[in-house]
Amino acid sequence: MEKQSNESSITSSPTHSQTQVSRLHSLLQYCVIAPCLVLAGICFSSFGFADARQTGYTHGSSYAATRKVPFEVHIESRCPDARDCLQKLVAPAYWQVEDKVDFRISYVGEVWEKPRREVTCQHGMNECKGNKLLVCSEKHADSIGDALDFNTCVLSDYERVPDEGLIKECAQEHNIDYQQISDCANREEGLELLISSVERSVAVNANASCTVRVDDNVWCSRDNYEWKCPPGRGVVENLVEEIRKLSEDGEDSTRYL
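== GILT family thiol reductase ==
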């Protein structure tokens, strides 16, 4: 009986070769499955990261899709309304929302194709010269913020435009190379930049200096020392609030004509 039991035990126990095969089989399964799991994890992480970049979501933050809101001002260099517009509304608002806007400055005038391609300005040739200096500053300044501050500085004494002393003083104050913008304004580059800028103003029907546009719609304008828009539009806080709302959930904001 004891012998029979031992034989039964021997028969039911796996052989050495069977054990090796089983281990090899397990190893092969691991070698196949493990890389698949790693690859799946990488793919999942990549999709999650890409989605976070598109939506503005980062780890530890709440979901908040943001976008750069178009913010534009149309001005003339010898215009008191443009001065007031920059000083009282545009510049103070811009510096509160600079990271939320795609800001640009455009100039008001009229483009002629004959007898040669040229620009005329409401306040004469001095204004056209001033406009060229300003539009050149937007191209050659280190940032659009520097160009805005330069414009605001120049227009604070708009009756002197395009006086060299005024332009040099404002350029030095706002880290802009005077010689660079002067050379630009006195060459074909300055004329072409101004023509392009005026054509843009004409294309969007921004014919008054100053016209403020937000998200490609007129927000407010200033003429004859008065705001020409619904009450409250000439207030910095309201403009800032609108831009922030458009940046965070633009589809739900009010559209302006």
